[in-house]
Task: structure prediction
Amino acid sequence: MFRKTLLATVATAAFATAAIAGSMKKDIVDTAVDAGTFETLVAAVQAADLVDTLKGDGPFTVFAPTDEAFAALPEGTVETLLLPENKDQLVAILTYHVVPGKVMSTDLSDDMEATTVQGEAVTIDLDNGVMVEQATVVSADIETSNGVIHVIDQVILPEGNS
Result:
């Protein structure tokens, strides 16, 4: 089971990387849309009215959970977050995945903290690959016209939203 999940994750990361290679001309949102593996993230960004922000000048660093990462959340979580009455919570979760500025993997150091747009900091761990909080970076340094995307295998939640 673990091997099958690992292979699926590697295949997803490889597909996402191939699909968005050469995306320097496209912004973060268009790059995510074109990849085809971030449909849930894109739907959430739309529901949270963050499309214009993430299409803006930036630069932004986005830790982008794949569709599989969202699917791993408890049943009904995504559907509940997408409801209009939960927009504030959705915005808090999504902006917890965004760091102002362009942070490439070469800029990272073990146990560094990066303050997110949401206001809380995420911790980067380099001991076992690259991790952001509990999520593993499965594809890094996908450059866009207004920042960079690092693909992660889990949705990270700010305190009070876990």
Remarks:
- DSSP finds seven helices and seven strands in the chain.
- The longest strand covers residues 135-144.
- The chain has a mean pLDDT of 86.
